[in-house]
Amino acid sequence: MSVTHVRQLFTQLYEENWVKLYVHVFRMLDDRDEARDIVQEIFANLWDRMERLEIEHSYQAYLFRSARNLVINRIASQDVGRKYEHYLEHAASTTEIMPDELLREKELAQQIDQAIEKLPRKMALIFKKSRFEQRSYREIAAELDISEQTVKKQIYNALTVLRKKIRTIFIFFLPLSGHYPVF
Asked: Which helix (H) or strand (E) holds 104?
């Protein structure tokens, strides 16, 4: 496929399917920003793979399958964070907390803090303002003189990196009490 043909096909697919995909994803997530991000990610992935892609049935079916998969992944990754938070709440509510469990939790918290500090400087700054200072995307964007989209992308990237790191770290800090979060 020639470069010109690839561009024309991509443009046609984008124009014909962007709104349909957005509505489809929005119905699943009920979040305009997330829906927009996912649709943009679908088309970015399509562009990256366009020359190597071998579509047997239809591009539209491929795009909607991609949307479904990205939504499932997004929900699952958000679920990991909620399960970990639930685990921490449950662990904190138990009446008998053993000293070794407290030490393990403290060490885990330190490892997570270190993982945050290892993020690129601007990404870490944006992440901390969002998660620790409870600032909105709009507030962060205004303060740092960047777009809200940049803030969203930086937080998304930070969470992606941290989730991978936390899964690895967590294996080494599983509590002995038998209360294991499911990731």
From this structure: helix 99-117
pTM for the predicted model, two decimal places: 0.45
Distance CA(98)–CA(146), nearest Å, equals 46
Q: What is the C-alpha separation between 52 and 40, in angstroms, rounded?
A: 19
Nearest to 126 by CA among 112, 142, 108: 142
Dihedral-angle region of residue 130 (phi above 0 means left; psi in -120 to 50 means alpha; beta otherwise): alpha
DSSP secondary structure letter of residue 95: S
pLDDT category of residue 28 using cuts at 50, 70 and 90:
confident
For the chain, counts of helices (H) and of strands (E): 7, 0
At residue 170, the pLDDT reads 55
DSSP secondary structure of 11-53: HHHHHHHHHHHHHHHHHHH--HHHHHHHHHHHHHHHHHHTTT-
Q: Which two tokens stand for residue 130?
A: 């969002």
The predicted-structure confidence for 74-122, as pLDDT tens digits, reads as follows 776 666 556 666 666 665 555 455 566 666 667 777 777 888 888 899 9
